[in-house]
Specification:
The structure holds 2 protein chains of 2 kinds.
Chain A: H1 6-38, H2 40-65, H3 70-96, H4 105-118, H5 128-154, H6 159-180, H7 189-212, H8 222-240
Helix pairs in contact in A: 1-2, 1-4, 1-5, 1-6, 1-7, 2-5, 3-5, 3-7, 3-8, 5-6, 7-8
Chain B: H1 6-21, H2 25-41, H3 51-77
The chains are: A mainly alpha, B mainly alpha.
């Protein structure tokens, strides 16, 4: 029986926690705007329905993954992780370099609140606009969380640690939302995205290599090496593409 | 059989999922092409065992750096 592989478990928990933190913060901004402008019944109802739909998706597709040969899981998940992680990392590099503007949660909140105020008031007991808006944002960000948890967890049989990382992030964001009742803009979101992009790119490269049947130097301990490698390359890319700062607050 | 608005909702969902993985088409294409080349060639080149995984990483890291720097320089020229 194999023991816990800490090189993988630690990185899986960290990647799932940080990525989920970013996604939950983005969802929280919109749900708070919906609640403040259209009422909490629709906001919480929509978010709750989306969480139930996400749970159903996990229960429907999760057990099937265990029946797929591990090599295919490593290759499929690794390729998707690379596409997903490199996209995140490239965007974080460009934001750090001032090529594209940083995301501003307070500005996103104001924009969403202004849009919601413009929609007509609901006549029924349930506000359809509030319900649909909260459902959609929770579903979109939640699918990303589910993908990340499955991706970093399934190929190395680390679904439980990755799931715990995501659950911890959800708990932190819910707590902050309950305490503050306003968008959380103090968290350095781009720095988180930078770190998550590095971790996901490293995981993706590792799994694809395993899927190809390559032998990593140092076996599983090459994963921290890949993290350092991508970090150095990303910092170099920031320095090489740095332009004058773009003001924060634009979309994205 | 299509429900009113059902097509656009499904299309929107497909676009959202696609957008999770593809933001810059050139970056995504370069990654896929390099993975295909690496998957076919690297295990069969007869290189020392430590080199193919390093080559896989170097190729991907180069693709990332070139994509970001090109975008940054294009932005700086505008």
């Amino acid at each position: 029986m194999e023991g816990v592989n800490w090189a993988h478990a630690g990185a899986a928990v960290l990647a799932a926690f940080l990525a989920s933190l970013v996604e939950c913060l983005e969802a929280l901004t919109v749900v708070l705007a919906v609640g403040a402008v259209r009422g909490w019944r629709g906001a919480l109802g929509g978010a709750g329905l989306a969480l139930l739909a996400l749970l159903a998706l996990v229960l429907l597709f999760g057990p099937g993954l265990a029946r797929i040969p591990i090599t295919w899981v490593q290759l499929g998940v690794g390729c998707l992780l690379l596409l997903f992680g490199m996209r995140w990392l490239r965007k974080a590099i460009l934001r750090s370099a001032g090529v594209i503007p940083l995301r501003d949660e307070a500005a996103a909140y104001e924009r969403e609140a202004a849009r919601l105020r413009g929609d007509p008031a609901s006549a029924g007991a349930w506000d359809g606009v509030a319900l649909a808006t909260a459902f959609k944002i929770t579903m979109i960000e939640g699918i990303e969380v589910v993908f990340i948890v499955i991706a970093v967890g399934s190929a190395g049989r680390m679904l439980v640690p990755a799931g715990l990382g995501a659950a911890a992030a959800l708990g932190v964001v819910l707590l902050l939302g309950l305490l503050l009742h306003r968008p959380i803009s103090a968290i350095p979101e781009n720095l988180l995205k930078f770190g998550v992009g590095v971790l996901l790119a490293a995981f993706g490269t590792f799994w694809v290599g395993e899927g190809f049947g390559l032998r990593w130097p140092g076996a599983d301990w090459s994963l921290p090496g890949l993290v350092v490698g991508y970090l150095l390359v990303a910092i170099g890319a920031v320095l090489a593409s740095r332009v004058d700062a773009v003001p924060a607050g634009a979309r994205g | 059989m299509a429900m009113p608005g059902g097509g656009s909702m499904l299309g929107g969902a497909v676009r959202e999922v696609f957008g999770l993985f593809v933001d810059d088409a050139a970056l995504a294409l370069a990654i896929v092409v390099w993975l295909l080349v690496a998957g076919v060639a690297l295990p069969h080149l007869g290189l020392p065992a430590a080199l193919p995984p390093v080559a896989l990483f170097v190729g991907l890291a180069t693709i990332l750096a070139v994509s970001a720097v090109r975008r940054g320089r294009a932005s700086g020229r505008r």
